[in-house]
Protein: MADS-box protein
Organism: Cardamine flexuosa
Amino acid sequence: MVRGKTQMKRIENATSRQVTFSKRRNGLLKKAFELSVLCDAEVSLIIFSPKGKLYEFASSNMQDTIDRYLRHTKDRVSSKPVSEENMQYLKFEAANMMKKIEQLEASKRKLLGEGIGTCSIEELQQIEQQLEKSVKCIRARKTQVFKEQIEQLKQKEKALAAENGKLSEKWGSHETEVWSNKNQESGRGDEESSPSSEVETQLFIGLPCSSRK
């Protein structure tokens, strides 16, 4: 039975796609191994499955092979001469950049009120419109910043008011406790200053006795 030619496009059926991936992957790894053994070549192969699983083969150390590849490509790029066509393109781009820079510098000077002596009415009107637009943007941003700062100050005021309330409550309870202690101490002092012991007195009726000489 003759096998039909495989069309080079994505296999829509997920099961068939997975089976084909497994077969082709194993065949590719086998070919890489055979190439390294038969031809004494340094071969490294990296494969990621559709689900992100890694499959790799290296006839030597994988990292050493990658470092060797990076050094080779770097040397190849640095040693590649710049063609005349590329040189002309770079010169053209540099000239365009210089022209744009000069235009921007001239526009900047005009916005600052410099070099407007040769400007026409239309150019002056354009500059005026640009300045008015810039002023509007600046004022809008300024208003927004003020609003944000006011909101921050309100939040700080609320926090300080809450903290002040807590401190006042704490100080009020402390002052009440001190006043209560003072009253208790004052009561004990009154009790000590007025003793409850009875004083005996004698009452004499008549003339006092005269002392004998």
User: Anything to note?
Assistant: The chain has a mean pLDDT of 80.
